[in-house]
Design goal:
disordered N terminus, 554 residues, 44 strands, five-stranded antiparallel beta sheet, 1% helix, mainly beta, single chain
Length: 554
């Protein structure tokens, strides 16, 4: 049962079964969650966000009556989750575009590096994703005939910058992306939008590059981080939409248009066409940081936009990352408007006039839960780890997930024995089932809640001064290299029980409490620990908290 507190995330892990000093075995993992806002849509309405939790930078495309969406995933593996829908509201994950270690190498990458904002499109029977692997070779294209996969190995593209997307015109493809401007940058965050033709048959860039936008809508105002560009054509006009302001409280979406593909592009006088930056940050249950939108036209001729935004629990604190939202697009005097200025992003709205998708077995919006019984021979596609493993570190068999020790948390040169699920609600319960006997001091197995390599907590079994203990450790660093941030022992208690141990984490907005159960007895190790260090505001970066089993055997 979910505790009747204002906000709570409860995550339980039961560590059970037969394990050696080299292996930790986990049984069932159950998640139950609800939203802080407790908004209930009316019949015929939909609920925002449409993808709860760390699903940022959405790109959407339509193929007939089917819609496909992809999100960024940075250095988590597998990566680039692919979703399908027929109604733009109910989404089912069908695969991960990066699901083989040989596709991309994330070795040494910080969690908020690697694969940034992707773009998905379709042409002549083939799906395309164009993307950037930051600090791991740059821009690339991958393809698939089935969006569920398998996706190809990357074709690397010889230009700098991030956030490429493909605009298709007839049988020609053009890549538009964020690059350095064609002049020395005038200020920090001064970027530009460029276009160049892509020979999709040969898999290479051709012709000259043309700068379309320098800086942003109005260079004299020093706009920052023009990025995430998309081009589409309507009524004889080429429309270029892009994010501006950086992916935080000043985020926005702007639009420009031209009669020629390569410009000149004139900005809309009413820009931005989506933002929340001018609203009172003290408003109740705010939705913030809205931007990075992509527009899609339905088979009925209506226009909609997917975009990212955040749901802070206090001030600008949010631990669950940037999420995917949906709004209708209104056309006025030849310009698209996602949201009128001064309006808050609505929690609910009238659903698109589209054939309803079947209710997904694993919902992505609203209050929901799931149980993973580990009853197959592989993990479900929603499980993610940190960086690309060069050798297997887990096994799934006979209803158990077994982890072998790998690199410790915080060691960017390695891959930790960690698999987790996105924290998708501020209020939730999760539980599962180990018998782990730490063979030496420092060995540990339990739950880890990870924002980045240097901002995480561990709750579970370990050995301290030769004695088995239940312990809670935390590290409160930043997403960039922060080896100086120490790991701190918050609390510990002797552990003498034999058999299964259940670990439970209750998070309430910016706090967590920690219970454990053994031999039929439940005790609290620590209550109301401040975990705002797991928020983007404290930790930095672009991801959300991921929680799951972790093991380390030195």
């Amino acid at each position: 049962m979910i505790r009747p507190t204002l906000t709570a995330l409860a995550l339980s892990l039961t560590l059970a079964g037969s394990a050696t000093a080299q292996t930790a075995s986990f049984e069932r993992f159950t998640y139950r969650g609800r939203s802080l806002e407790q908004v209930k849509p009316k019949a015929g309405d939909y609920l925002n966000p449409i993808l709860s939790g760390y699903y940022p930078d959405p790109s959407v495309t339509r193929v007939g009556k089917d819609y496909y969406l992809v999100n960024s995933s940075f250095a988590h593996f597998p990566g680039l989750p692919i979703f399908h829908s027929t109604d733009l509201v109910h989404w089912t994950q069908i695969g991960n575009a990066i699901d083989r270690p040989g596709q991309l190498d994330f070795s040494g990458r910080a969690i908020s590096e690697a694969v940034f904002a992707p773009d998905i499109s379709y042409h002549d029977g083939i799906f395309y994703i164009v993307n950037t692997c930051v600090q791991c070779r740059g821009n690339f294209v991958i393809t698939a005939r089935n969006p569920a996969g398998p996706w190809s190995d990357p074709i690397w593209l010889p230009f700098e910058g991030i956030d490429p997307s493909i605009y298709w015109e007839g049988d020609h493809a053009f890549i538009v992306n964020n690059r350095a401007p064609a002049e020395p940058p005038r200020y920090d965050g001064h970027r530009a939008i460029w276009i160049q033709e892509y020979d999709w048959r040969a898999g290479k860039m051709v012709g000259e590059s043309t700068q379309l936008v320098n800086g942003g809508v109005d260079l004299s105002k020093k706009p920052v981080w023009i990025e995430g560009p998309h081009i589409f054509k309507k009524d004889g006009w080429y429309y270029l939409t892009a994010a501006e302001g950086g992916t935080s409280v000043n985020h926005s979406q702007v639009v420009l248009r031209s009669k020629q593909l390569r410009g000149p592009y004139a900005p809309f006088a009413g820009n931005p066409i989506l933002t929340q930056r001018d609203l009172d940050p003290r408003r109740p249950h705010p939705i913030s940081a809205a931007g990075h939108a992509e527009l899609v036209q339905t088979q009925n001729g209506d226009w909609w936009a997917t975009f990212l935004a955040t749901r802070p629990y206090a001030e600008d604190y949010y631990n669950i990352g940037r999420e995917t939202f949906l709004l209708p697009v209104t056309w006025r005097d030849g310009w698209p408007i996602i949201l009128d200025k001064g309006r808050t992003v609505p929690w609910t709205g009238k659903a698109p006039n589209l054939p309803a998708s079947p209710s997904p077995r694993l919902p992505t919006s609203g209050d929901f839960g799931y149980t993973d019984e580990f009853d197959g021979n592989r993990l479900a596609m929603q499980w993610i780890g940190i960086r690309t493993p060069q050798s297997p570190f887990y096994r799934v068999a006979n209803g158990r997930l077994s982890l072998d020790g790998r690199a410790p948390l915080g060691d960017r040169s390695g891959v930790p024995a960690f698999v987790g699920r996105r924290q998708q609600h501020v209020v939730a319960d999760v539980s599962t089932t180990v018998d782990f006997t730490p063979a030496r001091d420092g060995a540990r197995a339990g739950l880890a809640a990870i924002q980045n390599d240097y901002a995480y907590l561990f709750f579970g079994l370990t050995r301290i001064d030769g004695q088995p203990r239940i312990a809670l450790y935390a590290r409160e660093g930043k997403n960039t290299r922060d080896e100086a941030a120490p790991e701190t022992l918050i609390a510990s208690a002797p552990f003498r029980a034999r058999g299964p141990v259940t670990l439970t984490i209750y998070a309430r907005g910016g706090t967590m409490s920690f219970d454990y159960q053994a031999d039929g007895r439940t005790a609290t190790l620590k209550s109301d620990v401040d975990v705002r260090f797991l928020s983007t505001a404290k930790a930095g970066g672009f991801v959300g908290t991921v929680v799951g089993p972790y093991a380390y055997m030195p």
